[in-house]
Amino acid sequence: MTTQPAPAPVHVATAELGVTAGAAKARALASLVSRSGAVAVLVLLLISGAIFDQGFIHLDNLRNIALSASYIGLITAGMTFVIISGGIDLSVGSLFALGVLTSAFMSEYGSFWTIVVPLLCCAAAGFVQGAVIAWLRLPPFIVTLAGLTGIRGVVYYITDEGNLTPQVPGHKAFENLGQGKLLTIGYPVWICLVVFAVGWWLLNRTAFGQAVQTVGGNDTAAELMGLPVKRVKLLVYVISGLTAGLAGILTTASSGGGQEARIGDQYELTAIAAVVIGGTLLSGGVGSMVGSLAGITLWFVISNLVTQGLQFNAQDQLVVSGGFLLVVVVLQTLLSRRAAAAETH
Amino acid sequence: MTAVTPDDFTSRLRVPRIDLEWVRDKGVYLALLALGLYNVLFTPHFNEFSNMQLIMKQVSAVLIVSLGMLLVIGTGGIDLSVGATMAIAGSVLGLAVSPGSSVSGGMGLSLSIAVVLAILSGLVVGLFNGFVVGVLGVQPIVATLSLLVGGRGLALVLTSGGLVQLFTPGLTKLSAGNVHGWPYVILIALALVVVVAVLVRRTTFGYRLVAIGGNRRASVLAGLPVRRTIITVYALSGVLAAIAGIIATARLHSADPSYLGIGFELNAITAVVVGGSALSGGRVKILGTLAGAVLMQLLTSTLASHDVPASATQVIQAGIIVAAVYIQRTSRSSE
């Protein structure tokens, strides 16, 4: 649903000069906030955390935050593509579980299959959803809602209704992927950063990225321009499947298996929240990878500050996170509305 | 198109043309009929009244939530916070009836006051959603998503994260009692169906709701009170979710803020969509939603009674959701 700009006031002529200056200001402010708001808040939080909370700035703590954020971080990277293309992917939590469980099952056949099979499964699931959305033109919300249910069903099916929790027999190379460290920081964090870098490059420096943004802005116009709209829509869901699968593989590698079939429940909500906090509009067309990275980091920094620093319970942390999301989206809406209202003059 | 003569008109009134279009329009009822017939013939113990009672009890809460979701979806919005609202209502109910000696923060109030408080808590959540969506203009998905996250947190904070056991006789009666075999809870749900039907089909509010969902911009320009209608719709969704929360709490004999209402938002959306209402708004099918909720519940219990694993049931449900939307999409584009 689109927000309605406020009806333009009648007395335009009287304040024309002032309004144009105001419009430019409002537009600049809105784009600044949506582009760098999350980064700015993140920096502010890190600084205040460092000042007021002795434990927070401890390197071990920061490493832990980065590591725990890296898994949903990967999912967030894929979700950013989907949302910029004007869609939404509710199935990522289930896809993540599919990645976790298939990699654990494949681990007895060697590291290669442990990585390839989950990626193939998740990409295939993303492909099917993307194909239904692009060619049958069904709403993404419904298709991926069905995906959320159906793929979770598949996960329960392969784990004998959730009774199997496959373990990873000692595969040094594979477990090293999740547990190894480079410059004292875990591999999953590096992998997550690399994926975001590649995502940034794809989105901002390639024809595909331009096409994703154009399709998200107006898919009819994109079609008329001769862009391969269907292929673009298909690909973003494949990307989302791949990143969710990769997050699953890394989770299995770092935990050594033993995960239950219900893992990843509601991860889609965290990923969507992070993307929105990062300044990407749910209506599509506009968004940034850097914002999403800041968004997911913020989500985990806040929960760390609230539970560790302020010694709040897990339930208080939910309230704070939900409240924070609300403040961010309200601010975004009000600012972009002001910019839109100013532009109509 | 040729002119419609009075003859054409009366003949259409008498005999509905049974073609593909008709089948598409009535798909959910046909599916429900087929599934019901299959059960009557092939499912052991299906015809026993106790089984019917069980299905009616199981479907009540999700049906009530679906009604609220239907109103919200009718305006082109969506309410992801209904499950969290159920949990909040359950926690409020639990705290209000429990004596302070057994539960910290317990108020030991009478059941009727506790129920009113629980419904009021749903009203507050709904009003808040309505304010954020209608007045501030935030997209419904994110606005209600923040309450999905924060609302469950609030419910947990209320009960200090724990489960409140409830053995209030009134609540037991609510979940187990019946009138001539009809469980109280399904009677409440059906009464609410009637209330919502009257609201949508017989009041100005209902016409406004459908108009806003059909074309919001036109509704603004036509001078309809769009904001007020949207706030009312979310408030009703909150109240209905709270009633469902009370019923679910009574059924569990406890207020369980960690799990009460989890996934209900998706079940409710499924019931609405399978029932033939458009997710984009403007098409509100009340009987369809009732049929959609019953169909999904009946499907679950049918597959369970034929020893189909729960995992396969989920996959089949996913297929039905996509099929239902696909059928409706093609029917609208061919109109």
Notes on the structure:
- The complex is a heterodimer of chains A (345) and B (335).
- The radius of gyration of chain A is 21 Å and the shape is globular.
- The N terminus of chain A is likely disordered.
- A two-stranded antiparallel sheet of chain A has the order 1-2.
- Chain A is mainly α.
- Chain A is 74% helix and 1% strand.
- Chain A has 13 helices and 2 strands.
- By secondary structure, chain B is an all-alpha fold.
- In chain B, the strands form 2 sheets. In chain B, strands 1-4 form a two-stranded antiparallel ribbon.
- In chain B, strand 2 and strand 3 form a beta hairpin.
- In chain B, helix 5 runs antiparallel to helix 6.
- Classes of the chains: A mainly alpha (345), B mainly alpha (335).
Low-confidence stretches of chain A are: 1-19
Share in helix of chain B: over 70%
Distance from first to last alpha carbon of chain B: 13 Å
Largest sheet of chain B: 2 strands, antiparallel
Strand order of the largest sheet of chain A: 1-2
Stretches of chain B where pLDDT falls below 50 for ≥5 residues?
Answer: none
Mean pLDDT of chain B: 84
SSE succession of chain A: HHHHHHEEHHHHHHH
User: Strand-residue fraction of chain B?
Assistant: under 5%
Structural class of the helices, strands and pairings of chain B?
mainly alpha
- Using the CA coordinates, give the radius of gyration of chain A: 21 Å
